[in-house]
Design goal:
Blueprint lengths: L2 H12 L5 H8 L3 H13 L19 E9 L7 H9 L4 E6 L6 E7 L2 H11 L6 E8 L13
Helix pairs in contact: 2-3
InterPro entries: AsnC-type_HTH_dom, Dimeric_a/b-barrel, Tscrpt_reg_AsnC-like, Tscrpt_reg_AsnC/Lrp_C, WH-like_DNA-bd_sf, WH_DNA-bd_sf
Protein name: Lrp/AsnC family transcriptional regulator
Keywords: DNA-binding, Transcription, Transcription regulation
Length: 150
């Protein structure tokens, strides 16, 4: 990955809908060279996908919580099944394996505190193999999802 590739990533992370011609102008390469580089970045998995970033509150998701999840050590042999169950919930928008006191850190969205409580109690905590759940409610988003440094 050279400076041109990094520059492509910088611009596309800011605007994934930018035309190839506009991108080529910004990075000072010809349009065919730029397109070839973008395709290589896509095919190699550097660019995973393109998506629209939606404001949660604009679609009725007023609550964001970070949830630490611990697994039952007796059920650890079923860890991939637990993961499949957890990531199948649409409320879980991120899932990370972490070190420390918990096994996973989830980012969860919900319409209200009540609906978050129902989700945690009636659904997430009922997944076989889940031993413990601790939630931290996000009071205010200071820096929303942003570009990776290039």
């Amino acid at each position: 990955m050279d400076a041109y590739d990094r520059n492509i990533l910088k611009w596309l992370q800011g605007d994934g809908r930018m035309s190839n011609v506009e991108l080529a102008e910004r990075i000072h390469l010809s349009a065919p060279q730029t397109l070839r580089r973008v395709r290589t970045l896509e095919e190699s998995g550097v660019i995973r996908r393109y998506a629209a970033l939606v404001a949660p509150a604009a679609v009725g998701l007023e609550v964001t919580a970070f949830v630490s999840l611990s697994l039952d050590r007796e059920q650890f042999r079923n860890v991939r099944e637990v993961e499949r169950n957890v990531i199948a919930f649409p409320e879980v928008i991120e899932c990370h394996i972490i070190s420390g006191d918990s096994d996973y850190l989830l980012k969860v969205v919900a319409a209200s505190l009540k609906s978050l409580s129902v989700f945690l109690t009636d659904r997430l905590m009922q997944v076989p193999g889940v031993a413990g759940v601790r939630s931290m409610i996000c009071m205010e988003e200071v820096k929303p999802q942003s570009s990776l440094p290039t």
